Amino acid sequence: MPRIPAVATNDAGWLTKFSYRFARKRYGAVPEPIAVAANHRKLMFAGNVHELMVQRASTVLPANVRDLAVYRAAVRLGCEWCIDFGTMLQRHQGLDIDRLKHIDNYADSPLYSRAERLAIAYADAMTETPISVTDEQVAELEAEFGRDGVVELTYHIGLENMRGRVNSALGIVEQGFTSGEACRVPQP
């Protein structure tokens, strides 16, 4: 149970009810971070719009590269909710979620491509405290993905750091979007 209770649908205003309906249609359930953020309706709406805009603007990197880096940041932060939700999203995109079990060994694993390894290592460097990103690392990423790709990757990893830290601080834990090997939420 989160430290700040979720806003129940019956107690929600029209904007929150609209957000909940949209989320249920898209994900099969209302993500708990949205329901907790509904305690501050304006920030909930701003966050929802931001997430949609980021998703639409992210067209440079291959989804597998971007999503693995985001997932790795969630793992490093220990955000149970982010790991749960991220696994579901990767499954819905047709990505291989079985290899997520081996992400701690990404550097030597044949399950990950060179591009994926670069992105995961960058997620590690960005998620450390203090941040340990190097000039050489960014140069290597730029050679692989281009400048716009590096900016997109950096933005997504930074955004996941914010999500994971907010969710952890508010006590938002896994919601059951994935359960063992099977996803509880049907693919849209």
TrEMBL record:
This is Carboxymuconolactone decarboxylase family protein. Residues 59-124 form the Carboxymuconolactone decarboxylase-like domain.
